[in-house]
Please model this.
Amino acid sequence: MAWQLSYYSPKVAALIEAWPAGVRASFLRIAQTMAVHGPDLGMPHTRAIGAGLFEVRAKGREGIGRAFYCAVVGQRIVILHAFIKKTEQTPARELETARARLREVKT
Model:
């Protein structure tokens, strides 16, 4: 059975829609693969952050995108938060947003 991908909110879907074409195409390819093979593809496509939080590692000529997600009951993957990476390290507030939404989705 295939995995179902959904977004935490329309705002999260809009953030990804606004990504540069190459980065968005990379994200969509990874998302389609996750729908077939499950949420944990491993590096370089996905990475476990810890406590049930994962990230999609989308890359294009225009830059790098990150989308945080979690897997929930019933083979569902919820994209919690997304942003375009501008620094080497993931900004703490981006991670905190994703963790807060993870707590909300898991309760």
Summary: Residues 4-106 form a domain with the YaeB-like fold fold (CATH 3.30.2310.20). The CA atoms of residues 51 and 99 lie 9 Å apart. The beta strands are 4-7, 46-50, 53-60, 63-72, 76-85.
